[in-house]
Amino acid sequence: MSTKKKKKNSNKISLIICAIAFVLMIFYVCFVDGFDNIISNISKINVGFLLVAVLCMVVYWTMEALQLHAVLQTLSPGQKFYKSFIVAILGQYFNCITPSSTGGQPMQAYYFKKFGVPVSNALTALLSRFIVYQFVLTVYSLFVLVVRFSSFAERFAPLMALVLVGFLINTGVIVVLIMAAFFTRPLKIMAKGVIKLGGKLRILKTAADVDNSIEKVNATIDEFHENFNFIKKKPWLIIRMIIYTIIQLTVYFSISYVIYLGFGLSGTDYITIISCQAFVLMISGFVPLPGALGAAEGSYTAFFGGIFNVPGRDPLAGTSTFIWRLLTFYLPIITGLVLSLFLGKVIKIASPDDPDEETPVEITAEEAKGDKL
Question: What is the rounded distance in angstroms from the CA atom of residue 328 to the CA atom of residue 326?
Answer without folding.
Answer: 6
